C-alpha cells in the first residue's frame, strides 16, 4: 500500500495525464491527476524523513550548480550539489538566485550532511562565489572549505540536473511554489534511491522487488507517525457510500 503512493510519484513525474489512461486500462481505475498530486503533497515529506534514516553520507568534494524551473510562469532556481562520485549532497528550491539563496542552500546541505565539504566547485556565477567566501565568517564549520571554479569539473552536476529535469518537464506545470518544492523533493528522493545512496543491509532486502523494499523501509518507522495507517478515513477521501477508493488505488500498485 505504501508503495502505491510513491509509484504514483514516479509515474506522475513521467506525465500524469498520460498515466491516467494507462492505469484505467491496466487496473480498471480512473484516477485523476489531481488525486495523484495530492498523494505527492501528502506523503513526500514523510517518505523523506523515513528514507533519510538510512541515508549514507556523501563525499566531501562538492560540485554545486543551479538550474531553472517555472512556477506560475516565473523562473525559480533549484540549487543542487553532488559529490565527486555523483551522489546527491542536497538540493533547495529558491525564488531568487543571489548570495542569500546560495547561503541558505549551503546551510541546508550542512544540516543534511553534518559536516562541511573539503572543497566546493562552482561555475563562474559571482553570487555563489561570494556566498562561499562569506559563510566561514558566519559558521566556523566552513573555515577549511576550499573554493574552486571549474566548468569542466562541474559537468558532473550539470549532467545530474538532467535526471531531475527529465522528470519535471513532462508534468502539467507548477502552480504553487510550496507544492513545487515538495514535488521536487519526491523526484530527488527517487533519484537518490536509484543511485543507491541508502544503506539498507540491515533490512535484509537482497533480491527483493521495489514495492517490498519500500514497504520494509517505511514499516520500520510505522510507530513514529500518524501517517502509518494511510487507509484510515481521516487521511483519505471517502465516497458517499463510505468506501475509501483512494486506498484501493494505492493497494492496486503493490
Class derived from helix and strand content: alpha/beta
CATH superfamily of the largest domain: Ribonuclease H-like superfamily/Ribonuclease H
Report mean pLDDT, rounded to a whole number: 80
Contiguous low-pLDDT stretches (5 residues minimum) are 15-21, 223-254
The order of strands across the largest sheet is: 3-2-1-4-5
Enumerate how many helices there are, as a single number: 9
Shape: globular
Give the C-alpha Rg: 20 Å
> What's the count of strands?
5
Classify the fold: give the CATH topology of the largest domain: Nucleotidyltransferase, domain 5
> Major β-sheet, in short?
5 strands, mixed
Estimate what percentage of residues fall within beta strands: 5-15%
- What separation lies between the terminal Cα atoms? 6 Å
Would you write up a description of this structure?
The protein has 254 residues and is an alpha/beta fold. The chain has 2 domains: 2-54 and 203-252, no CATH class; 61-177, Ribonuclease H-like superfamily/Ribonuclease H (Nucleotidyltransferase, domain 5), CATH 3.30.420.10. The chain has helices at residues 2-12, 16-27, 33-52, 99-113, 126-134, 155-168, 177-195, 210-219, 245-252; strands at residues 61-71, 74-83, 88-94, 119-122, 146-149. It has a 5-stranded mixed sheet with strand order 3-2-1-4-5, sandwiched between helices. The chain is globular, with a radius of gyration of 20 Å. Mean pLDDT is 80; it is low at 15-21 and 223-254.
Question: What does the secondary structure layout of this molecule look like, with pairings?
Answer:
Elements: H1 2-12, H2 16-27, H3 33-52, E1 61-71, E2 74-83, E3 88-94, H4 99-113, E4 119-122, H5 126-134, E5 146-149, H6 155-168, H7 177-195, H8 210-219, H9 245-252
Parallel strand pairs: 1-4, 4-5
Antiparallel strand pairs: 1-2, 2-3
Helix pairs in contact: 1-3, 1-8, 1-9, 3-7, 4-5, 6-7
